[in-house]
Amino acid sequence: MGAATAARLRGTGRRVIGVDIRGGDVAADLSSSDGRAGACAAVAARAERLVGVATFAGVSPYAAPPDVVVAVNFFGTTDLLAGLWPMLGAAGSASVVVVSSNAATTATDVDEELVQRCLDGEEDAARARAIEVGGPSSYTSAKFAVARWARTSAPQPAWAGRGIAMNVLVPGVVDTPMTQAMAADAAARRVLERIPVPLGRTAVAGDLASWAEFLLGPGARFAVGAMIAVDGGTEAALRGGDWPAPRAPRRPR
């Protein structure tokens, strides 16, 4: 999805700096704090300001240990955005697309303790809790936490107040190398087969890239803190009219 988004943006003449564990313009392991800091430094060496960031990096619970899932899927997003925040603010008007997953809103195994440890910035404690709850729950909890973090942060003075419009993209099942690897695992394949997609097909990376391109562009700058499900109807089929569920307001962090 990230590669497809980069290709669309480059096709319109925009400059893109790709960050990946391998093969990107910047090589970085986002599962470690040193890797995230190195990524931010490398991006800063290439540009003085950023007009947009999309955080597509993520790993599957069927391909990585639970603690690595949390480290990449939550802290790999929030720490990277914290490190790039000065460059986004310098642009005067910028956009951030935080990529979550509809697993975070349709699954029943979100672990609130793990979510809270993530939101409190306690990476060591969050990684330890992830090992306790296991892979699938670590994935849904990290994706839930990153969406909650983005929704809570987006309207704050540090983000919207600096002209940075942050929103959350919520994909469903997308035909990517990650889901192809999941399909090779019997347990993961059974999970995928139970997911309803009313539109009748699996998404391709371009389906998400077009939305990311829009959210990164000037036409979406008045949207702040929105969660946009791009999943062929899965969210609506499973949750109907009860999403987003009302929650007590949390004190901004």
Description:
The chain is an alpha/beta fold. The protein has a single domain (2-238), classed as NAD(P)-binding Rossmann-like Domain (Rossmann fold, 3-Layer(aba) Sandwich), CATH 3.40.50. It is built from 11 helices and 8 strands. The protein has helices at 2-11, 33-46, 66-90, 103-106, 112-119, 123-133, 135-153, 177-183, 186-193, 205-216, 234-239, and strands spanning 19-20, 26-27, 52-55, 94-99, 164-171, 174-175, 203-204, 227-230. It has a 4-stranded parallel β-sheet with strand order 3-4-5-8, sandwiched between helices. The longest helix is centred in the N-terminal third of the chain and has 25 residues, at 66-90. The model is unreliable at 248-253 (pLDDT under 50).
Topology:
Layout: H1 2-11, E1 19-20, E2 26-27, H2 33-46, E3 52-55, H3 66-90, E4 94-99, H4 103-106, H5 112-119, H6 123-133, H7 135-153, E5 164-171, E6 174-175, H8 177-183, H9 186-193, E7 203-204, H10 205-216, E8 227-230, H11 234-239
Helix pairs in contact: 1-10, 2-3, 3-6, 3-7, 5-6, 5-7, 6-7
CATH architecture assignment = 3-Layer(aba) Sandwich
**First and last CA, distance:** 30 Å
Radius of gyration (Å) = 17 Å
> What spatial form do the alpha-carbon principal axes imply?
globular
Placed side by side, the strands forming the largest sheet appear as 3-4-5-8
CATH fold field value: Rossmann fold
Number of helices: 11
Topology pattern, helix = H, strand = E: HEEHEHEHHHHEEHHEHEH
Largest sheet: 4 strands, parallel
**Helix proportion of residues, in percent?**
40-55%
Give the integer mean of the pLDDT values.
91
Strand content: 5-15%
Task: Supply the CATH superfamily name.
Answer: NAD(P)-binding Rossmann-like Domain
Helix/strand structural class:
alpha/beta
